Backbone:
């Protein structure tokens, strides 16, 4: 199987899906206003509900789609996600009320997970000594889409209105089915037998996997919490500027651009020296670059720290995925990546909620302190568990070697 071609195909698909799904972000609250939600508090509540509904249903369904992948393969899982997400997103153009839009956003979460499934597909087909490089490269596709999507969505909504953008988004997602069907090879599936039957009990018997699931959840809280409050924080630095949306968008885009630069190189580095060594270091460095943002008083200073943090954050997700892939048996790989996806979606859901609560009780800058300390603590914890496991494996090998020598002597 030509795994490099698979990386290129999925990079294009991830770019299109990410760009499509983020096209609606700039005007979602404006669409709710147009539907009649004009009171400020109600608008904030409805916007939060509409955003988070997809993450909640996606977290519920991800393990079930993992079972589907173990039986039929991740290529079939990609086709399933593309059809469901594309059709339901297109239907949002005809939502007549906030409740209808909320229901459709919740429903699309049941079929979502294209990005996460694409990582799982590559983990199956790429040689393990190249997994960091491949996953790091793939991540740049979704990040590039996240940067370009809001710009395209904002421009299209200004030209044609809000609702046609949903149709464009749905069409973009459905269009990804063509390269998946015609250019992507079917991934191997381990036959399920009575003696070799996959189960979630086996997934949770692996302590290293549980550590990585929790780390995925915590990283998403740290990263998404900050991103959700970026506009408010930038406003605290520049005041009520006319180009506030552009300045806050630039703060997020700078991090994304840095991630695109750093992810492939850090993935290769992890392949060379070991992902278990690079992941704790990247997490701690990311936290250290987040903490100075607490005391940032100037916008350009914020941009510098966001860029530096983006360089190292780019290597975190590929390292997590590569380690999860290395730890899980092939027959339960779909289930393992399903739980990984749930951990990520739950982090996406909890991050903005926690950030909003902290900003309300303390200050907006305290969010950066939470993010930095959480990343540092996660890195230290992952590093300590990895070190303990490596030490135990080393001792087992030494004891086995001594026992073998004694056996030969006697």
Residues:
């Amino acid at each position: 199987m030509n795994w490099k071609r698979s990386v290129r195909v999925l990079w294009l698909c991830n770019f299109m899906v990410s760009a499509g799904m983020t096209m609606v972000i700039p005007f979602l609250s404006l669409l709710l206003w147009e539907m009649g939600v004009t009171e400020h508090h109600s608008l904030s509540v409805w916007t939060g509900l509409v955003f988070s509904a997809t993450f909640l249903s996606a977290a519920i369904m991800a393990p079930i789609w993992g079972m589907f992948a173990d039986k039929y393969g991740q290529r079939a899982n990609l086709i399933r996600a593309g059809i469901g997400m594309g059709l339901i997103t297109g239907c949002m153009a005809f939502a007549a009320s906030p409740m209808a839009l909320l229901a459709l956003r919740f429903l699309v979460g049941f079929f979502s997970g294209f990005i996460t499934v694409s990582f799982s597909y590559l983990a199956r087909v790429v040689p393990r000594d190249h997994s960091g490089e491949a996953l790091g490269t793939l991540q740049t596709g979704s990040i590039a889409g996240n940067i370009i999507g809001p710009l395209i969505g904002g421009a299209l909504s200004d030209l044609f209105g809000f609702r046609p953008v949903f149709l464009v988004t749905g069409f973009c997602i459905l269009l990804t089915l063509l390269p998946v069907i015609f250019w992507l090879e079917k991934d191997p599936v381990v036959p399920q037998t009575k003696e070799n039957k996959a189960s979630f009990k086996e997934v949770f018997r692996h302590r290293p996997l549980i550590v990585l699931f929790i780390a995925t959840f915590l990283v998403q809280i740290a990263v998404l919490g900050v991103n959700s409050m970026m506009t408010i924080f930038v406003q605290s630095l520049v005041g009520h500027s006319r180009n506030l949306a552009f300045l806050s968008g630039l703060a997020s885009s700078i991090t994304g651009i840095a991630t695109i630069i750093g992810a492939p190189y850090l993935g290769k580095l992890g392949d060379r020296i070991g992902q278990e060594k690079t992941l704790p270091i990247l997490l701690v460095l990311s936290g250290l670059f987040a903490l100075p943002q607490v005391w940032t008083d100037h916008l350009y200073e914020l941009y510098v720290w966001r860029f530096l943090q983006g360089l190292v954050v780019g290597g975190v997700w590929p390292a997590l995925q590569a380690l999860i892939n290395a730890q899980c048996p092939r027959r339960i790989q779909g289930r393992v990546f399903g739980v990984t996806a749930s951990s990520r979606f739950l982090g996406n859901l909890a991050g903005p909620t926690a950030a909003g609560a902290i900003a309300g009780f303390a200050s907006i800058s305290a969010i950066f302190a939470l993010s930095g300390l959480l990343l540092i603590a996660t890195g230290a914890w992952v590093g300590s568990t990895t070190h303990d496991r490596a030490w135990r494996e080393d001792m087992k090998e030494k004891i086995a070697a001594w026992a073998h020598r004694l056996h030969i002597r006697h």
User: Anything to note?
Assistant: The radius of gyration is 22 Å. The first helix runs from residue 3 to 22. The chain has a mean pLDDT of 85. Residues 251 and 300 are 9 Å apart (CA to CA).
